[in-house]
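Continuing the batch. This is chain 6 of the set; chains 1 through 5 are on the previous pages. Same settings as before, nothing changed between runs. Recording input and output for traceability.
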Amino acid sequence: MRAVKALSAAVLLLGLAATPAAADSSPSAGPSGDGDAPTTAGTSFRTATEIEQGRRATANAAAGDYLYWSFPADAGQRPTVRATVRLPETHAAQTWQVDVYDGLRRRQACQWGAQTRTAAADASSVELACVLRTVRAWSEPWANDPLPGTYYVRLTALDLPTSDLGARVGAEIEVGSRDMGGAAAVDGSLSEPLVPGVAMASGADEDGEDRGAVLSAIEPEDGWSSGWWSDRWVWTGIGGVLAALAGVGGYALTRGSGRPSRVPPGA
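Output for chain 6:
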């Protein structure tokens, strides 16, 4: 019975350790407030505006422009990109689309969400969404799986009528993610993010020249966490302890009460 009590206590401790890991499966809150959120968008991959997850970015543009933003995504996260386009008072029917690319500029498919929508002529805005696949810590070279690193968002209108080209529009974009926990863990990891991406550096260098495009410095709030640890280890430990408890219980039920008193020794 002492062994059973000790193993039961071990299961309780492992369950308490697993509680924070299970809580990670809820959507991440991200930074609060939009006081220092970007108010412009890039016009290409090289000039994409960096944004943090959980913070809304805005931009004023002309219909027909390509708008680009970039954000970091780490292993185990399932990013969701939401975009809203504010349309002018008078316009024809317009079709808008949001696309997401990884650091290698490979277009990533959306699991679900309204990636493309058509706004009627009397609509004041159009909302788009794209839920990506879970970012993996490691993948085969030939696969198109999302990997840790910088991701790019492109927002644009498709086949605009000539009368609407150049019309002023407003765009809002926000990226959030859900931590999928050990369910998304794989056997392997990247030692560094896939591609850190590029960004436009503000200011000038020592020679007074514009620094232009540089490697992106933005990263997840808690840093790049790709590694061997996941809450899958906790649940594996709990499974091992439960198996040991089942073995002890089975032995206790089948061993009986020992030699009957009526049976002489050596019989």
